[in-house]
Amino acid sequence: MAGYSIVLAVAAVSTFLLTFVVRRVAVYIGAVSVPQGRSVHERATPTLGGAGMFGGFLIAMAVASQIPQFQEMFDGATEPLGLMLAAAIMFVVGGVDDLWERKGGVSPPAKVAGMVLSGSVLSLLGVTMLYFRVPFARYDYVVLSSDLAPLVTVLTVVVMANAINLIDGLDGLAAGIVAIAGGAFFLYADRLFKAGLLEGSNIAPLVAIIAVGVCVGFLPHNLNPAKIIMGDAGALSIGAALAGLALTTNTQLLLPIIGGLYVLETMSVILQVGSFRIFGRRVFRMAPLHHHFELAGWPETTVIVRFWILAGLCTAIALGIYYADFISLPGVLD
């Protein structure tokens, strides 16, 4: 665990320090979000916080590659390169959107194209879902065909990136949830190792702990009132990293954690659109779920903390399901 502790600290500290620099640069180049419409900020706030997060991610990966404990993950493997390239593509797409925010940002089709490219790079470099486990099922694995695996890989990236982007609506909300999800994934990966279901060369636990460190390092800058926001550059790149976790472990552990919140947020908007069209009038204000809590008069900090608690509950349920599924395996809970 010593190596993971070092990488966690490097990710957190480097992200924390880099974000100070990014804040200044963002203001200098005019990359700021101006309050308008449903904005939760009362003043112009620097964007491009994702640059500090992505920088922390790269530094932590570079340090990890020099630690003997992780040599098996990097020697002759293409997965680390695939994850970094996929996250880089999403960072560029999100960064351009943040810079062009006043001009309308990147069009939805262009964003989706970037997500497809990111997922395709993951698939080409070996980060793909060839099979997955179904807890408590009579069969151990569902094996995907060679034709279907790349499609599932791309869809995983698209769903996860959009999930984080949608959840990132309040200061510190997405960073806190990703930190919780990353911590849960690290614990789960440890159980997989003990069960002999995860090879020592699998990079998932390392990426999980780096995601936790990056978000922990970014949170002091992003808590209400935020001094900088992660923007699409941060949300999309961290979403690509989480997709990589799901793919490299061939598991759906993240779905109850991130996916559950994503469904709540998405259904909130869909129900509003449906009500608007059915009744011919604006019955509800169209906004993600977390904004409705604000409209109901809840303080922003209260909304954030309660969503963190909800994410924690989803995490406990997800871990409980998978731990119970593995409990009969020798050595898993030793």
Mean pLDDT: 77
Q: Which sequence of strands runs across the widest sheet?
A: 1-2
Q: Could you list the spans in which at least 5 consecutive residues all have pLDDT below 50?
A: 265-288, 327-334
Give the proportion of residues in helices: 55-70%
How many domains would you count in the coordinates? 1
List keywords for this structure.
334 residues; mainly alpha; two-stranded antiparallel sheet; 12 helices; 4 strands; disordered C terminus
What's the short story on this structure?
This protein has 334 residues and is mostly helical.
What this model shows, in words?
The protein has 12 helices and 4 strands. With 334 residues, it is mainly alpha-helical. The protein has one domain (2-250). Helix 1 (2-29) packs across helix 8 (204-222) and helix 2 packs antiparallel against helix 8. The longest helix is centred in the N-terminal third of the chain and has 28 residues, at 2-29. It is globular, with a radius of gyration of 20 Å. The model is unreliable at 265-288 and 327-334 (pLDDT under 50).
